[in-house]
Fold:
Amino acid sequence: MCYTCGCKLPYEDHGDPANIVEEDLKRAGQTDTIKKAGVKTAKENLIELIRLQMDEDGLQRPRTDYNK
Ligand SMILES: [Zn+2]
Structure:
């Protein structure tokens, strides 16, 4: 929306690369650390971490590590 401004346009960066768009997540799905698992896995991992932060009201100031 982009993914961050609330516009709900996943491919629209509004001319500002600070807005996270589909292309950013596609690139994130092709790194070595995610073993090139793809955009779907990247989004699932992103959602999981954000959920963990939401669960403890930590969106504003997340902890440095959410591993058990
Ligand atoms: Zn936007």
